[in-house]
Amino acid sequence: MEADEGEGSRSLDLEGSATWASLADQATSQAADEGLRFLGEAAEVRERDFTVAGRGASKTHSDNRSFGNVHPRLLDRLSRADPVIFRSVWTVGLTKPSAERKLPGRADPHGRSHPEVISLGQVTTTAYRLTQYAHGGGCACKIPPGELEEIVAGLIGPGSPDLLVGLGDGDDAAVVRIDGSTAVLSTADFFTPVVDDAYDFGRIAAANALSDVYAMGGRPVLAINLVGWPRDVLPAELLREVLRGGFDIAAEAGCPVAGGHSIDDPEPKYGMAVTGLADPARLLRNDAARAGQPITLTKPLGVGVLNNRHKSTGEVFEQAIASMVTLNAAACAAALEAGLSAGTDVTGFGLLGHLYKMARASGVTAVIDAAAVPYLDGARQALAAGFVSGGTRRNLDWVRPHLSTAVGENELLLLADAQTSGGLLLAGEIAAGGAAGLSPRGSVIGEFVPRRKAVVEVR
What positions carry a catalytic annotation? Predict the structure, then answer.
């Protein structure tokens, strides 16, 4: 198998038992023939990585999409010095395994099996595993809810009769009344990569930011980008892909993106500040749930444990990505159509955390039927394999003193699973399909009852 041929290109022997070390030797020899000199700087090698012998570069293998990361400074130096060798050796594009074409395995020095290389080509965004450049991922990297409440306690600015929703109950957006029929919603949300693919990261972050407006019963009308980027570590082309993903989701929402703000940051971060409009008499609020109302969840849980498994192993879970990039626009429209007045979205504090906030603010108790809660395929297996984030455990610790439960710890961890771009959590039932075009994913998972000793009960 040879590298793509083109003007001035050279072939590399990838047949047989060629190793990354031997490929590096070939590349270096070819470069040396032309007088090229470069110095690879040593990478910090994590336990699951292995080092390309003698080249000071680390490659983190992943199971589906790419062979992961070469040390970024070496990538930059080599790509500038000799694009042909860089294209041929250091960025290897993998075709995702499919039912039609099964790929043979390849063992690395740690005994793991990885897909065989089946194509070489131009630099692709999957050459970088974005999740490996951040300590956390998605909404799981939020400051813990209890800690955050202590930080902002008492930090309330000048009051205004037109400020309809502020800091008080931890709603999803601030709301100010402009006139009798118009209120402006303002929110911001950003986080570190929750997936490795730059375009998908942008789509997920944008959908998550826009969700705050939908969770308040609003319509997004303007967004601006919020970007932190390690510009000396990750190439600008990757950031462009992140932004493209955000633009595409905003376009789907009918929301223009007009500029933004960026900083040079040690870790990649992306999100949006979003402005929306709503009818002040038809808001969805945290404090408006009433006893006797059913509890509806519009997306399945489980993206947290699946994302954590993805970060650790490189496995790609399309069902999680599909859920996270789905806008909550239809669910919002269905809630308003049904005349509901209480809602939030399920994100970093998990179902239990957001439900606790909602029931506490509304003066009721939330009773959950654990068997009725929907989950993404693979979520329970990821939990059983131990892919539980620290954020999820902190969520459960925060709610536990206010919780009465008849289920086991593993079930509670799934209910506290830190979600990214989760569904809406509503007081009341909504119709599947109909004018709002809602997906049938909406599920009644419990009910609100008059306040009892526990704020949340799980049966």
Answer: 139
